[in-house]
Amino acid sequence: PSDAAGTRDFPPLMSASIILPLKGTKPAELSNALLSYYADVTKSRPPEAAAAAARTLDQVRERLSSIKALSDTTADAAATELLAYERQLAALARRLDNAGAALNVRFIWRDAFRPKQKVEKGDLDWERVCTLFNAAAALGYAASRAFRRGAQADAFKQLQRAAGCFAAAHDMVRPAIWGLDPRWEPASLSPDLGLEMLSALRDLMLAQAQHAFHQKAVDEGTSPSVRAKLAEQAALLFGAALRTLDSQELRDYVTEEGSLFKPADDSWLRRLRAAEARARAIAQEEAAAAAAADSSYGAQVARLRLASELMRRAAAAAPDGSPERRSLEDESSSLSQRTRQAEQDNATIYQDPVPSAGALPRLEPKLFVKPIRPEDGLSSAQAAYADAFPALLPAATAAAVTQFHGEVHAKLHDLSTRTTSDAEKAQKALAELELPQALEACEADKRLPARLVRAIAKAQATGGVGVLEELLSACTALEKEAVGAATMANEVLKAEEEKDAALLSDEPRLTRPLLHALKTTQPLVITRSQLDTNRERLETALEVTAKLRSRHESSLREMGGLDAPLEELEARLPHLDGTPLEAEPCVEALRALLDQLEQLKAEAAAKVEAGRIRAPSRAEALAELGAALLCEGGSPPADGSGAAAAAMAPFDQVVSEYDALQRRREALLAAVAEQHALFVVARHAEENYAERQEYLGSLSHGADEMCAGPRGDADPPGW
Fold first, then answer.
1. What is the largest distance, in Å, between two alpha-carbon atoms of the chain?
2. pLDDT, tens digit, for every residue of 381-412?
3. What angle do the packed helices 75-94 and 152-177 form, to 10 degrees?
4. Which among 52, 70, 69 is positioned nearest to 60, based on CA atoms?
């Protein structure tokens, strides 16, 4: 439906004219070369996963190279597999120096427009560029099919992906041919992969994608003013592609005999000229509808006139007799009628001044497309393929991984050495304070000294005070008996003395010497001598017993205290302030600090062990860090960030956490020294507590006296 002030449906311009041909290729033995190189580099037989991945490369390449032309049934699948193959090549190329030139595989590809022209190069980037060209061609074909079935959104996405393939190929070709010592000689490239051609094809795909978006906006009923901007942008993109392709060199290339289309004709360029003119006509037609909606009928007429002229040019530019020409002529005729209707309506009804074409405001383009590059997201299958060759890395990347591996293990070795050294220093600091042995004083504080315990046990073994009392009573009884016997003997001898004195008095002739010489007198003399001696010994014994009795009586209270069990004697130990040493706050604090130090020692060892367990082997580092570095370009960034720094971060964290533990240890040791000083003061005060010393002295004296009692007195000897 259409009228002078409204909008109309725009038939798609997509036709066989924009379908790009595929580049042909010759077989290449990639898998054998790759596996041989793998064995040379790793000095080992390739694992089965690598061998399978290499065989897959050959199988995929052979399958893709067999596609000579695209069709509705093969385009989508071909595009998907071509992009997957390119991603696999990209993953492999990142693992090799010089894009795999060391593989010594020659990749031969034909020019897409001139199949007789072949180019041969020996690196994976060349294979990737050619594969990207074919992927873009397949995506373009799929987009054409989507247009034909009205799937504008699908065409929109596929064309942007095609543009992304050309952009990626352009970005790979440019550094390879630029510089004083280019990797590829610029003249060695086939024209279809020249920078200008790749840029033009990218713009062509973007132009068609923008056109698809405009068509989608039409289908969704977007306002004409917005659609005018979209169509104007499509025209600009068509124009950019056309200017490049219409240069003398490329014009001859696309029109030369044996090109994509008919020999020695310019139908391809004519179709592009028609596409540009039509896009500009549609932009003016949409702007005319917007002007009518804004009641600017003079501007509507002016833009419809301009649109009608541009559509006429588009029809004239299209190849003679082509379906595009007939379609454009129909559009031009319809647009001319609408223009005349608008002119008549304005003249008879609105009478709005009609500005000249030059006086019309320029349309503002609105870009809604961008190249979608093939590297935007790897599938899980592609990522798995990339992991099939973990041991293959460029020299710079392998060196970075080796350096990382060495730094990790050196860091852990230094940390292990520090852990041992710091633990020994802490132990030495505690040993200088006699810890934890010094805390045994807390237990000793509640116990009697071992020497005293032995003395008490020995004293208690004598039988206690009762035995001493019995011995003393027996001694007293013996004394009485001895004194009585001595007294009786003295009385007998005294009587004999008196009789001797009377005899001497009665017998003047008898002298004392004569008396003593008598045989009857001698036994008395001997008895008297013995009695005198025994009397002296008895007097000494009486003195000794008196001293023992006095000593016993003075020690009776102390000895009596020894009759209690040892536990009771220890329970009676006096304590300063009435509490044992272990109740002092400094003791509890010291024990808590020592426990924390021991726990900290275990934590430090655990940290080191955790870091050691986490440390990768060289093979693991090559696989994990190597893959991450490849995503960053092969080497760690100069600013110290990136995958290497991220991989080192856990080990730096281990060191940082250990440093924090060591600072805690130093603080704990300082607290231990402070509490130990308080402990020394408390222990000294407890040990020298006067009441405690008096109690211990009393027990010791009582034990000594109880042991000495049964022995008697050693002075004088024999008593």
1. 212
2. 555 666 778 888 888 888 888 888 898 999 89
3. 30
4. 52
